[in-house]
Amino acid sequence: MAQIEQSDKGGKKKKGAQKKMQIHVDFTPMVDMNMLLITFFMLCTTMIKSQTLQISLPSNEKVEQEQQNKTKQSEAVTLILDTERDSEGNVKVDPDSGKPAHIIYYYEGKAEVADENHDGLIDNSNLKVEKFVGNENGEVQGIRKILHNRNKQVLEKIDVLKTQWKNKELTDEEYQAKAKQIRNDSTLTRPVVIIKAGPNASWESLISALDEMQINQISRYQIDNINGVDSALIFDYQAKNPRK
Amino acid sequence: MGKVKIKRKSTLIDMTAMSDVTVLLLTFFMLTSTFLQKEPVTVLTPSSVSEIKVPVTNYSTILISPEGKVFLSVAGDADSTYSTEKVRAELIRNAVSEYNKTHSNKIQLTNEQVAKFSKMNMFGVKLSYLPEFLDLPQIKQDEIISDMNNDMVGIPVDDNKDLGKPNEFQIWMRAIYNSSNPNLEQAIKSGEGIAVKADKDTPYDVVHNVLDNLQTLKMNKFSLMTALKTEND
Question: Mutation test of the interface with chain A: which of B31, B201, B217, B218, choosing the one with the most A Cβ atoms within 10 A?
Answer without folding.
Answer: B201
